[in-house]
């Protein structure tokens, strides 16, 4: 009986410790008071209207971020499980929210995407190391709800630039020659071409992100962000 009592106390203490650890790990907005990172904010949601953006209860963009608008990098405190909120200008209504974990000195781009039940916030870390040998450094992101959830990206020669582009997951960086680049997005399951675009005047030594999103009429758009 004594052994049973000891085990009961042990398991009770262990359960309490695990519960406390779970609560601690879920604590929101754990800020590193000495840490900083850079965040760029993009409105990729056609139906959203103008937006403000808040990170860990700090307003970084007070309003006026319209569809396809891209902010400059904003220096902000780094931390764990920081709440990101896009709010429709003139209201306190949260259009979409998400959570961000950052370390010191990194660079992130955050996107507002979708609408209604599909509204979401997606964050991707940026690599700002410049390409060598006169090349152009690019990556692709699919934020469209109308396109297939898994795509292939091909160039005009039919070669794969990205074999598997999954919705809300950034491709790795690719290196291409400067000048004009034609790309075609194909659904992996269907094999159908869902969109073809020409990206003109890509500059040597520059870094670009190309993101797919849906226009207000449901058509597919490919937008460009230049990083340097």
Structure description:
The protein has 228 residues and is mainly beta. The chain folds into two domains: 30-126, Immunoglobulin-like; 136-226, Immunoglobulin-like (Sandwich), CATH 2.60.40. It has one helix and 16 strands. It has one helix spanning 2-25, and strands at residues 30-43, 51-55, 58-65, 74-80, 82-88, 94-100, 107-113, 120-126, 136-142, 150-155, 160-166, 174-176, 179-187, 193-202, 207-214, 220-226. The strands form four sheets. The protein has a four-stranded mixed β-sheet with strand order 4-1-7-8, with no helix packed on it. Strands 3-2-5-6 form a four-stranded antiparallel β-sheet, with no helix packed on it. A four-stranded mixed β-sheet has the order 12-9-15-16, with no helix packed on it. The radius of gyration is 22 Å and the shape is globular. Residues 1-25 have low confidence and may be disordered.
List keywords for this structure.
single chain, 228 residues, mainly beta, Immunoglobulin-like, 2 domains, 4-stranded mixed beta sheet, 4-stranded antiparallel beta sheet, 1 helix, 52% strand, disordered N terminus
